[in-house]
Amino acid sequence: MNRQIGRVAAVTFLLFGALFINLNIITLLQADELANHPSNRRLILREYAIERGPIVAGEEAIARSVPTDGEFQYLRTYPDSELYAHLTGYYSIQLQRSGLERALNEDLTGRSTEVVAQNLGELLGGSERPGNAVQLSIEPAVQRAARSALDGREGAVVALDPRTGAVLASYANPTFDPNPLSGHDRRVINDTWAALNERDDRPLIDRTRAETYPPGSVFKLVVAAAALESGLEPTTLFPDEGVYDVPQTQANIGNFSGGVCDDGDEISLTDAMRVSCNTVFARLGVELGDDALRDQAERFGFNDAPPFDLGVTDSIFPRELDVPSLAQSAIGQRDVRATPLQMAVLAGSIANGGQLMRPHVVDAVRDPDGAQLRGPDVGRWTGPPGGGLPISPRTAQQLRSMMLDVVNSGTGTAARIDGVEVGGKTGTAQTGGDPVAWFVGFAGDEVAIAVMVPGAGSDATGGAVAAPIARSVLSAALEARR
Questions:
Q1: CA distances to 167, 173, 239, 289, 464 from 150, in Å
Q2: In this structure, are residues 144 and 157 in contact, taking their beta carbons and an 8 Å threshold?
Q3: How many Cβ atoms from other residues are within 10 Å of residue 319's Cβ?
Q4: Residue 146, in any domain of the structure
Q5: Residue 137 near residue 168, CB atoms below 8 Å
Q6: Domain extent at residue 309
Q7: How many CB atoms lie within 10 A of CB 232?
Q8: What are the residue numbers of the active site?
Q9: Residue 353, SS3?
Q10: Do 443 and 311 meet the contact criterion of CB atoms below 8 Å apart?
């Protein structure tokens, strides 16, 4: 009898032990996963009892909560929905969250660590307080200028302050309306979601940061930076060839014009940049070597996503290149890829004396009484490898001067603004289909910009398509900051 009792006790002890271990695994290791699992709606239902804080650009609430008489106490609405959709994202009973609604959910619901006292008060019986307001660095006039300048075409525009990294505009087209996704009718949500995902133009993709494109000739800024950092000068001369005979291949590289870039004798690095001479930069890339180009690209942030308030896809400079691939990569082709955000940050570094600043779109988080809980994440983005400046102040000044020549008398004249020092670089990346048109540049030290327009037509160029867009947005940014 005692033996049987002992066996029952041992089994009972083991069962209680297993239960104890399982409860601890759930409590300590799986709690966050289970709480945020798409099948668990309890958390988001509780959030609908809170007046979610607004997301504000300038003086405009671009996302706000309004009270309802239905099952859910508040409805999330987006007054100028398509203009800011890729920034705000949606807040949905069915799809949960995206964009800033997801990234800053604890702030918007008032659950961030800065408001521990508020949370404690609620636990002790206090009423639910509204969430915190998120103030963005976006200038509405600049955001609207980006939309207007793209004029319905597929593309992306990023404008930022090179001195601080504050993003002034981040607009991608096609875009979408987050209001139906954030409504309370599950059938409408599901139908809208299905329709958006079936569209060939992929409106849910934020082309400013979530997708990469061949940069074409705007990547010549990286090659020129590597050359200047290695000791070459803007006046260094190169053969002015109509075709560069690439070693180890029959696939040689010619110029966009089909001929030489100047008089067929020699051409300086400055003039090669001004007229975007492929043969010079392909030769220069091969002479510098893939290690030097990769090191310089990574110092600008390639192969490592920038620290941003929203997720960013890595811009890529490929590893282990053979000579033909290196020559193509030096003119921004082959497997080189970049986001518009990355190229705006790069242009900002040149405008800012070589300082590579962390881009940010959140300017402040404020409690319901208006007190600031935290400010922007301002500082240098050291980036790999080893930190430091991506280029010296001297190299930055040399590149700046070269980019001014591009706009004053080169391929970027369509970006000129009377009375303003505008520098830039155009790019026309060949993809096998219609090219990707680029312009990256700056206006003084106040605004840096990247414009990317894919599929603009078989004869599209960065100078003809992207540079005028940049001019319009730069003008709006300068006016907004006066």
A1: 18, 8, 38, 37, 13
A2: no
A3: 9
A4: no
A5: yes
A6: 216-480
A7: 17
A8: 217
A9: coil
A10: no
Whole-number pLDDT of residue 47:
76
In Å, how far are 322, 358, 441 from 220, measured between CA atoms?
Answer: 19, 22, 13
What's the whole-model pTM score?
Answer: 0.88
Model pLDDT for residues 317-341, shown as the tens digit of each residue: 999 899 999 999 999 999 999 999 9
Cis? peptide before 174, omega within 30° of 0: yes
d(CA 31, CA 20): 15
Which CATH number fits the domain that encloses residue 266?
A: 3.40.710.10
User: Residues with Cβ < 8 Å from 162, sequence gap 6 or more?
Assistant: 347, 348, 349, 351, 352, 355, 357, 442, 445, 446, 447, 448
Q: Are 262 and 275 in contact (CB under 8 A)?
A: yes
In sequence order, what are the residues at sequence separation of 6 or more whose Cβ sits closer than 8 angstroms to the Cβ of residue 207? Answer: 154, 155, 156, 172, 173, 340, 452
Residues in the chain: 482
What's the token pair of residue 333? 């082709």
DSSP annotation of 338: B
Six-digit token pair at 477? 């940014």
DSSP per position, 296-316: HHHHTTTTS----SS--PPPB
pLDDT band at 92 (very low <50, low <70, confident <90, very high): very high
Question: Are 261 and 240 a contacting pair, CB within 8 Å?
Answer: yes
pLDDT over threshold 70, residue 97: yes
Both tokens of 37, joined, read 């699992």
Residues 6 or more apart whose Cβ sits within 8 Å of residue 262? 240, 271, 275, 277
Residue 116 belongs to a domain = no
Asked, for residue 389, whether it belongs to a domain, the answer is yes
CA–CA distances in Å: residue 362 to residues 3, 34, 136 = 68, 29, 5
Nearest Cα to 453, choosing from 443, 442, 463, 441? 463
Reading the block at residue 235, the tokens are 């006046």
What is the DSSP track for 1-45? -HHHHHHHHHHHHHHHHHHHHHHHIIIIISHHHHHT-TT--HHHH
Asked, for residue 158, whether it belongs to a domain, the answer is: no
The number of distinct structural domains making up the chain is 1
The residue assigned the tokens 């193509």 is: 328
Kindly list the distances between the CA atom of residue 253 and the CA atoms of 243, 280, 327, in Å, as whole numbers in the listed order.
6, 10, 8
